[in-house]
Amino acid sequence: MNKFELYKNQKSEIDTDLNCTFIFDTNILIDLYMFEESHTDKIFKILEKIDIWMPYHVFKEFNKNHTPKLYENTGLTEIFKELSKIKKSFSTLNDINIIIEDNKILNNHLDQNKLNQIQEKMDDCNLKENGEKVSEIINNIKSLKPEDLIYKRISELFDDKVGNMTSVKELISIRKEYIFRCEENIPPTCKDLDKEENTFGDLIVWKQIIDYSKKNKKCVVFITGDNDWYLNKEFPFPYLIDEFYLKTGQNIYFLKLEEFISWADDKLDIDVDNDFYEEIKNYNLYKSNENTINEYTRKTKPTIDLITATNLQQELMKSIAGNTGMGTIAKDLAKQQDQMKRLAGNTGMGTIAKDLAKQQDQMKRLAGNTGMGTIAKDLAKQQNQMKRLAENSTLTNAIKKQNELMKNLNRIIK
Predict the structure, then answer these.
(1) DSSP-assigned letter for residue 390
(2) Helix runs in 51-184, H state only
(3) pLDDT tens digits for 126-151?
(4) Is 63 contained in some domain?
(5) How far does Cα 244 stand from its chain's mean position?
(6) Statement: residue 410 has pLDDT above 70
């Protein structure tokens, strides 16, 4: 077999007489929930005609993730989101009402009649009672469990075709190898390093597939929608093909779902209409856009959180400036806003740490003013906001300083 052709066009190299085992990545099984029922039926008919097997890690991930996809496909996920927004709105309004009732300084500086009118309108809304009703509706909808026909069919097809769990000892070894492969840029790649869990899941699947092929002396067709297995999203990494053959003496073929469907249409006489290919194409485009948005959100989150914290600081300073004799101190505190903006560019904490030390003295000066209980509460909110920035390692020193500042302020107030 010409190795160059094997790298270039794997689909054409797969023949029914090769007696290969077909293995599906988790993302392929999960995506079955997003297609029309007639198209999903077509895939199951194909699975009935070929030899299939499931790595244990795929089995575990599929069982963990199939339910959220089912709820998304039935529209229940969107319903949960909208009802949760309503519930949050009731809760927020109720909190505002409590703040108005408890804040004596606020009551002394605002028109009492208008304040009473606002509270009466809030009381008419029955915020607490209606919030509880929304919670009850959400719980009732959650109790609705749509019939999961896809899971049922998959469990029947793969009933006795799931691999064994990898031992803890083997997982430790795989983890060490994963770090080495990342350092040497050996696929499966290290794009999952930012995940909170399952960071080396691709490598676990890879090892389990190799073990299966080696034990059963069978070539493998691996169907995946994950570009981590591909060079430039088009051809599978040649290293993986070579590594597989070196360790098993067998060939492995990588196919995307549309290539697998096309292969079955050609080799197994499965009649596949053009609408199915179009649906796969559109869904892949949707996933690509979604992944791009998620990646952008992940990368910009520390900066967005920083801007949010800065805005909160600005509002706090406006509140402080409204108190007698606070103008000068408010101007001093305004310097911190500019300092925090500098953090967005990860420019180092040396100068900022010195500047933040000045804030402690400024806070002590604030303690002598009337009404510091309210300001302390506002600052406590800012402290919680700053904790969200803890994921950005360059902010750690600033957050520690902020915590110390709050403790000192609370002691002074008491």
Answers:
(1) G
(2) 56-74, 76-102, 104-109, 112-124, 127-142, 149-157, 168-183
(3) 666 777 777 777 777 667 677 889 99
(4) no
(5) 31
(6) no
Domain annotation covers residue 247:
yes
CA 65 to chain centre: 13
- Residue 206, pLDDT score: 97
Q: Does any domain span residue 286? A: no
Which H or E run contains 356?
A: helix 350-367
Structural domain count, the chain: 3
Task: Read off the pTM.
Answer: 0.59
Q: Backbone phi, then psi, for 28, in 5-degree steps?
A: -70, -45
Q: Which residues of 120-146 are buried (b: 16+ CB within 10 A; e: fewer)?
A: eeeeeeebeebbeebeeebeeeeeeee
Helix axes 350-367, 327-343, angle to 10 degrees: 150
Supply 25's token pair: 């990545």
> What is the rounded distance in angstroms from the CA atom of residue 6 to the CA atom of residue 61?
30
> Do 36 and 95 lie in a common domain?
no
Same domain as 89, residue 35: no
| Same-domain pairing of 91 and 22 | no
91 and 208 part of one domain = no
Q: Domain range for residue 221? A: 3-55+163-265
Same domain, 49 and 174: yes
Residue 291 lies in a domain: no
Taking Cα atoms as reference points, which of 43, 58, 6 lies closest to residue 263?
43
The most confident of 117-126, 230-239, 308-317, by mean pLDDT? 230-239
Average pLDDT, integer, range 384-393: 52
Q: What is the pLDDT of residue 288?
A: 75
220 and 104 share one domain:
no
Largest CA distance in the chain: 88
Directed axis angle between helix 149-157 and helix 37-47, to 10°?
A: 10
Question: 190-199, long-range: CB within 8 Å, 24+ apart, which pairs?
Answer: 191/228, 192/228, 194/298, 198/61
- Examine residue 302 and say whether the peptide bond preceding it is cis (omega within 30 degrees of 0): no
Same domain, 111 and 207: no
